Amino acid sequence: xxxxxxxxxxxxxxxxxxxxxxxxxxxxxxxxxxxxxxxxxxxxxxxxxxxxxxxxxxxxxxxxxxxxxxxxxxxxxxxxxxxxxxxxxxxxxxxxxxxxxxxxxxxxxxxxxxxxxxxxxxxxxxxxxxxxxxxxxxxxxxxxxxxxxxxxxxxxxxxxxxxxxxxxxxxxxxxxxxxxxxxxxxxxxxxxxxxxxxxxxxxxxxxxxxxxxxxxxxxxxxxxxxxxxxxxxxxxxxxxxxxxxxxxxxxxxxxxxxxxxxxxxxxxxxxxxxxxxxxxxxxxxxxxxxxxxxxxxxxxxxxxxxxxxxxxxxxxxxxxxxxxxxx
Length: 327
Hints:
By secondary structure, the chain is of the alpha+beta class. It is built from 13 helices and ten strands. The chain has two domains: 10-187, no CATH class; 193-326, GAF domain (Beta-Lactamase, 2-Layer Sandwich). Helices cover 38% and strands 19% of the residues. A hairpin with a 2-residue loop joins strand 6 and strand 7. The longest helix has 17 residues, at 189-205.
């Protein structure tokens, strides 16, 4: 996404407010002193949020959250924000003022009090201006999480799906993405679980058919499932299943640098030599990996192995199978 001025410094524009803050700093307690200046300005009403928001939108060209987004709406982001934070945890610039919230169409959605130039390191990202109270809400969940909060979040994960019905949270003064989430209340956690598992029930039912189609072009076919940011074998074609393979050899950590992590982050299929996976299976030399998605979220992979060079048609075949399973 193109932004107008990514090197903005709010202190250059709000001089009077900055001076007023400097005068009041000696009166703040130790906890407040740990906060950023922009947060202190906004939380203590030294700088009016509407004034600041207007300035950021005009100069940066980003979207912002509408005022007064309720907690029951924010709760729908909990699972997604935890996952986004885990995936992008290798970036060291996250703070209470800048947080990864979820991944939308292979782009990282970031909520923040101001645009951080470090975000340029993440090619596909969308910055959305968010008020301090919203960022505090998510910071407690994904940065400052306590044991008691962990139990509470586990319950929430069973009660809310990760994707799909409309959420009204964006100030659309400029064109911004329409974000979709399905909401399930605490009385129907089993519904959310059915939605989450349905793709795997489908893959189970269609495995023989999909294997047959995949084997028309590939020497071997594997379905991997993501659990706790690691890939595991869900299904493989019958010929491959008969081999004495170590199934743990297909366990890849999505936090590490490997082809599966790349496809997970981008959602884009990749073809490469099998040596990149540190595998040695029969005479297979090439691998094609396609993301298996539920709505916009990557939940697994379809993997095809081949002895000869891969073609565009090979990749298209896996992508068609993946699209059908996500329908």
